[in-house]
Structure formats: structure tokens, C-alpha cells
Amino acid sequence: MVSAIRGNNPSQALKALVIVIRGGGRGRRMVLAVVPGNRQLEMKRLLTALGAQKGRFAPPEEAEAITGCVMGAVPPFSFSPDLSVIADAAIRDNAEVVFNAGLLGRSLFMATEDYVEVVDPLFAHIAGTAIDLVGGLHPPLPTPISSTGTAAATRARKPDRSAQR
Questions:
Q1: Is residue 75 assigned to a domain?
Q2: Quick count: other Cβ atoms within 10 Å of Cβ 117?
Q3: Could you tell me the pTM of the whole model?
């Protein structure tokens, strides 16, 4: 689980999903739906918020063409006038958000208010209820054991590369 490696709460993670929508008198278009990492996009809610009738996830080649990023590395920003951003209102629940920075394996932490100011997304309730990512849906993460034999809380840290210089 990426949030465990980065050391953040899954609700702080922003998932950026490229969606193809149709209807509502505006034809076929793409949107970037941004939802918290511990929630899933609810397509019906997205379509209602945008006044569209049909929607589906964009094929990888289309998503990569409009974002310039491989699937899984798409940041919650749009650099194309043809890709508007709609974000779930729950992303405002945290003071800080974290997201992929356009490359797999690269993440960026940012104050939520700065993200909102820079992106100025349309806000709507487009995600389902929060999911317990560690509980029933995915196998639990191993709990580190301290030298005394008791469980110890740990936080992921960047590796020390000073010796490699």
C-alpha cells in the first residue's frame, strides 16, 4: 500500500482518474475526477454532477495522451483545456494532500488550501463512503515488532543516501 510507504493517511492521497463522459448537450469529453485514496469514484454521482448521461474510464492510451503521464502516475492537475477537474468535497477534510507527481514512484505533499487555489476544481460529492483499506479489503500490513517483543509504531522514512555520495 503506497500510503504506508509514504507515511500518510490513505484519506490524504488523491487519486486522479481520467473519465470519458457523454451527454448533457456537450457531446463526448474527458474529465479528471479526483477522489481521496480511501474512497472509490461513484460514476452515477459524477455523471449527475456534470449533467452527463454516460461515463467510463478512459482507455490507457487516451488518458496518457491527454495527461502526458502513464496510468497510475497521473497527478490531480490538468494541463489541457480539454480536461476539466472535478474533485470530491472530502479532499478538504485534511490539511495536507499527497499525490503522484507525474512519475511512478514520485509523490508530492501539498497543503490542501494550496492545491485548491492552484487547481480551482469543481467540487461535488462524487466518491462513495470511506473504505477501510487495511481491514477487510486488503491483507493487513505486518506490524513491526520491537526488540522487547511488543508491537512498535513506525513511519516510513526516506532512505539515508548520504553514504552513497
A1: yes
A2: 9
A3: 0.76
Taking all residues of the chain, what is their mean pLDDT, rounded to a whole number? Answer: 80
Which residue from 20, 99, 90, 25 is spatially nearest to 58, judged by alpha carbons? 20
Q: How far is CA 125 from the centre of its chain?
A: 15
CA angle 31, 35, 38 (to 5 degrees): 150
- Rounded CA gap, 45 and 116, in Å? 21
User: Domain residues for 51?
Assistant: 2-140
Question: What residues in the chain have per-residue pLDDT under 50?
Answer: 136-165
| DSSP calls for 88-154 | EGGGGGSSEEEEE-SSTT-EEEEEHHHHHHHH-PEEE--B-S---TTTTSSPPPPPPB-TTSSB---
Whole-angstrom distance, CA of residue 113 vs CA of residue 97:
9
Q: What is the CATH number of the domain that holds 25?
A: 3.90.960.10
The total domain count for the chain is: 1
Q: What is the CA radius of gyration of the chain?
A: 18
